[in-house]
C-alpha cells in the first residue's frame, strides 16, 4: 500500500466526512486554502499555516512528501523563500460528497535563481481532505513539474528540452 493510500485510509477511518457538502464550514475551509496559496510568501506561510493545515497533515506536492504541520511549515517556508513571486489561481473545485475535494489550478512562479525575472506557468490539481476544524489533513498535488520547475534547472533543463524535442 502506498503512503498516499495509507493516509487516505487513516483519514477515512478517523474523520470520515468532516462537514456537509455545501455547508458554511466547507466554504470556509476552501477559502482558507485559496487564501494560503493566493500569494505564496514566507510571511503568509508563517501567518496562515496553523489555521490552514492540521497538526498531523500528510502532504505531497510531487517534489516532496511531508508529514506533520511543523515539517510542512519548514518545507513551505523554504519553498516560498526561493521565489520572488508565486501565485496560485483556483479555476475549479469539485467534491465527491464523501470528503474529497479536487481543485484545478494555475500557478505562476518567478524564481530568484532559476529563469531569473521570467514568470513561469504551470497547471495542476490538488486532492484535499479536511479535518473537522476545516484544516487540510491531506494534500496530494498533481502537476507538471517538468514544465513548471525542472526545465529551468541548469543541465537538467537542457536534457528535458532535448527529450521533449525528440518526442
Q: Which keywords apply here?
A:
167 residues; alpha+beta; Nuclear Transport Factor 2, Chain: A; six-stranded mixed sheet; 40% helix; globular
What CATH architecture would you give? Answer: Roll
CATH class: Alpha Beta
Task: Flag low-confidence runs.
Answer: 152-161
What's the number of helices? 6
- Report on the biggest sheet: 6 strands, mixed
Helix and strand element order: HHHEEHEEEEHH
When the domains are counted, the total is: 1
> What's the count of strands?
6
- CATH topology heading: Nuclear Transport Factor 2, Chain: A
Mind telling me the C-alpha Rg? 17 Å
Query: Distance N terminus to C terminus?
Result: 33 Å
Strand order of the largest sheet: 2-1-6-5-4-3
Work out the helicity level. 25-40%
Shape, principal axes of CA atoms: globular
* Mean model confidence by pLDDT: 87
How much strand content do the residues show? Answer: 25-35%
Structural class: alpha+beta
